[in-house]
Write a structure and sequence with these properties.
Elements (H helix, E strand, L loop, with lengths): L1 H25 L11 E4 L4 E3 L8 E6 L6 H13 L1 H4 L3 E7 L3 H11 L5 E3 L4 H6 L13 E4 L5 E5 L7 H12 L4
Parallel strand pairs: 3-4, 4-5
Antiparallel strand pairs: 1-2, 1-5, 3-6, 6-7
C-alpha cells in the first residue's frame, strides 16, 4: 500500500507545487492596490503613481522593447490616437525596461506627445508581474488604475495598432476617468 501511495502523493505534491507556482506568477489582479513606483520618463520628468492619487486615473501600457515592430505600432497608436484620451481625466504612459535615453530617442522618433516610462532595473515591471522570466523585458500588458490606486482592469490582449482608441474605450467603459 505504501508503495502505491508514495508515487501518488508525489504526483499530487508536484501538481500542487506547479499550481502554487503558476498562481505566484500570475501577479496582480483586478481589485489589488497597484504598486507605487517612481520612474523617469522620455519627457525628462519623473512620475510616481502617488502623484495622481485622488486626482486622476492612471494607465500604464507595458511593452517589451523600444524600436521593435509591435512596440513601435503600440506607442505610435498612443501618439496618433491620444486625442481620444486628452479629454479624459487620466494620466497615461507606455513603459518598458529600456533606459531613459533609449525611450527618449524612441519617443522622439514617434513624435510621442505623452511620456514613455523607463524601468531599466526592471523592479517596477517585476512588481507589476509583467517581467518575462527568461529575459529582463516586460510583457505587453495594460493596467487601468483608478484615482485611489486600485487596479480596475488588466488587459494582455493588446491590438497594437488601436491601442490608444482601445484604451479610451476601456476607460469610458470602466467610468474611472470622467
Amino acid at each position: 500500500m505504501t508503495r502505491i501511495l508514495a508515487p501518488a502523493l508525489a504526483v499530487v505534491g508536484l501538481t500542487l507545487g506547479l499550481a502554487l507556482s503558476a498562481t505566484a506568477q500570475e501577479g496582480l489582479k483586478v481589485g489589488d492596490k497597484a504598486p507605487d513606483f517612481t520612474l523617469k520618463a522620455s519627457d525628462g520628468k519623473t512620475y510616481s503613481l502617488s502623484d495622481f492619487k485622488g486626482k486622476k486615473a492612471v494607465v500604464i501600457a507595458w511593452f517589451p522593447k523600444a524600436f521593435t515592430g509591435g512596440c513601435t505600432k503600440q506607442c505610435t497608436a498612443y501618439a496618433e490616437q491620444g486625442d481620444q484620451l486628452k479629454d479624459l481625466n487620466v494620466a497615461y504612459f507606455t513603459a518598458s525596461t529600456d533606459t531613459v535615453d533609449e525611450n527618449t530617442r524612441f519617443a522622439q522618433s514617434l513624435n510621442a506627445d505623452y511620456p514613455i516610462l523607463s524601468d531599466p532595473d526592471a523592479s517596477v515591471a517585476k512588481a507589476f508581474g509583467v517581467l518575462m522570466p527568461e529575459r529582463p523585458l516586460a510583457r505587453r500588458v495594460t493596467f487601468y488604475i483608478d484615482k485611489d490606486g486600485v487596479i480596475q482592469a488588466i488587459d494582455s490582449q493588446i491590438n497594437t495598432e488601436n491601442a490608444g482608441t482601445d484604451t479610451a474605450k476601456k476607460l469610458k467603459e470602466l467610468g474611472i476617468a470622467e
